Amino acid sequence: MRTIGFIGSGNIGSQLARLAVKQGYDVVLSNSRDPETLQVLIMELGEHARAATPAEAAKASDLVVVSIPLKNYADVPVEELRGKTVIDTMNYYPQRDGNIAELDDESSTTSELLQNHLPDSHVVKAFNNIIADHLTSQAAPAGTPNRRALPIAGNDAASKELVTSLINEFGFDVVNAGQLAEGWRWQRDTPAYVKALDTKGLEQALADAVRYADMP
Ligand SMILES: NC(=O)c1ccc[n+]([C@@H]2O[C@H](COP(=O)([O-])OP(=O)(O)OC[C@H]3O[C@@H](n4cnc5c(N)ncnc54)[C@H](OP(=O)(O)O)[C@@H]3O)[C@@H](O)[C@H]2O)c1
To answer: Above 80 in pLDDT, residue 159?
Structure first.
């Protein structure tokens, strides 16, 4: 796996691209506009980065990060992502995304929406509970005491292994929270949301999470 594609290159996408280039990956970035609009970021990232359309970024890459407002998830290209691992960083904010019935009644989760949209891809939920700036400021080598841990969820074991190893390279431990349906455990308003926790602390926070319907 040498090339990572980005659908969405804003706060989170650009930070993950910085970590990827630092680790020697090639990156292909895209946004909702002309690829030209990403030139400043491409210049910063250097020769291992280029800008393209979302479909081109998806096609050119072995693994693709989707990091856009959730309300736009249906724009994510389907064919170009067939068979690939897709990291989903998205969170649900009804003020920004509008109301989504399956999320409001807690019958589904954000990454399951994306997985349903991409039935032949392997969606892994990751990087949802860390503030963008902290991706670079809190990254630390493996073995660092109290190294921050990040949760992942996914329905495909091999894709989760791939993402685990990538997150470890990027500078964080990983807690496997299970299937995509468990992704609500680090949605907004949960104990694990945007909090720096090591593996033990994160496991406890995920276990302590309660659904909105069960909140006092
Ligand atoms: N910011 C954080 O600290 C943070 C932390 C964890 C998770 N998240 C989640 O991660 C996602 C991205 O957050 P962000 O803060 O990085 O957002 P952001 O800074 O607003 O960036 C969003 C990116 O998505 C692109 N985009 C929007 N609609 C698109 C479409 N239909 N097709 C292709 N690209 C599209 C935007 O392109 P244009 O500029 O051309 O519109 C922009 O590059 C959100 O779901 C957010 O909730 C954010």
So the answer is: yes
CA of 95 to the centre of ligand 1 (A): 15
pTM comes to 0.98
Cα distance between residue 137 and residue 152, in whole Å: 20
User: Does the C-beta of 193 come closer than 6 Å to ligand 1?
Assistant: no
Query: Considering its fold, how many domains does the chain have in total?
Result: 1
| Protein residue with least CA distance to atom 7, ligand 1 | 128
| CATH number, residue 14 | 3.40.50.720
String of DSSP letters for 183-203: GGGGSTTSTTTT----HHHHH
- 66 membership: H or E segment, kind and range: strand 63-66
Q: Is the CB of 75 under 6 A from ligand 1?
A: yes
